[in-house]
Q: What sequence folds into this?
């Protein structure tokens, strides 16, 4: 189903910014990692 | 009377890693932070990788390439690896900013770094062991790099048998030992506490 939403047929798309060149999926993953890190730093597990 | 080596090992374990430390039921309050879950997330992913890898090893490439269940287990293997590296990256970054090599935990940090390296080599040999066109492409591309640094005759990415044997035997054994050692060291010293004001960042 995801393949129907995201067209995976075709060449990679890149984001280019100065010396930085990264594929869109990798950029999304890096963004998710950064978000997950800060969410984890800010949240606490419930105590028993 | 001479002490036997079993007695020496038992006494060493009792001194260095008492059961209360090895299997604790309480942790300091700071461990409530969700950031401490990245390590166990990495471990859980690694167990899934090993479990799905065992199933793939039993049934073989003919099964994972041609049947839907095989393709599913193959995907579980791939995506648990992806998850493991995501958790590993977060675990590594979290430990870096918390400087967790402090207070005698330098060896724990180094063993973790060696585990990271072993996991990367395990992943690369896995890419070369898929027995598909992608594996061929990766192996042919990688061989030039290894030839350039002079180890091509020892580590030949075009040798599927060598890549598969390293991937399913040598590297999982090395990685499991390193990770077990890492966890034992964490349990021995306890979870690294937060940095105090003015504390030096030395190991």
A:
């Amino acid at each position: 189903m995801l393949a129907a939403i995201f067209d995976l047929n075709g060449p990679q798309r890149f984001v280019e910014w100065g010396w930085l060149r990264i594929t869109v999926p990798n950029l999304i993953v890096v963004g998710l990692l950064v978000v997950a890190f800060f969410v984890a730093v800010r949240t606490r597990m419930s105590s028993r | 009377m001479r002490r036997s080596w079993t007695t020496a090992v038992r006494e060493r374990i009792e001194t260095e890693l008492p059961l209360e430390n090895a299997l604790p039921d309480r942790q300091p309050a700071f461990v409530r932070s969700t950031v401490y879950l990245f390590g166990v997330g990495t471990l859980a992913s690694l167990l899934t990788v090993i479990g799905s890898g065992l199933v793939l090893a039993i049934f073989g490439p003919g099964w994972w390439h041609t049947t839907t269940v095989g393709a599913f287990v193959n995907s579980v293997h791939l995506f648990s690896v992806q998850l493991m590296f995501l958790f590993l990256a977060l675990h590594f970054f979290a430990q870096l900013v918390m400087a967790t090599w402090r207070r005698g935990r330098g060896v724990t940090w180094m063993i973790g770094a060696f585990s990271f390296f072993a996991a990367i080599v395990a992943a690369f040999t896995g890419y070369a062991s898929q027995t598909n066109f992608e594996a061929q492409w990766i192996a042919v591309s990688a061989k030039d790099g290894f030839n350039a640094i002079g180890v091509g005759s020892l580590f030949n990415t075009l040798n599927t048998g060598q890549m598969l044997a390293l991937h399913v035997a040598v590297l999982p054994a090395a990685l499991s030992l390193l990770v077990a050692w890492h966890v034992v060291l964490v349990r021995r010293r306890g979870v690294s506490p937060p940095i105090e004001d003015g504390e030096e960042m030395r190991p």
Chain B has a mean pLDDT of 92. Residues 68-97 of chain B form the longest helix (30 residues). Helices of chain B lie at 5-16, 19-22, 37-59, 61-66, 68-97, 106-127, 133-148, 160-189. Chain B touches chain A through eleven residues (CB under 8 Å).
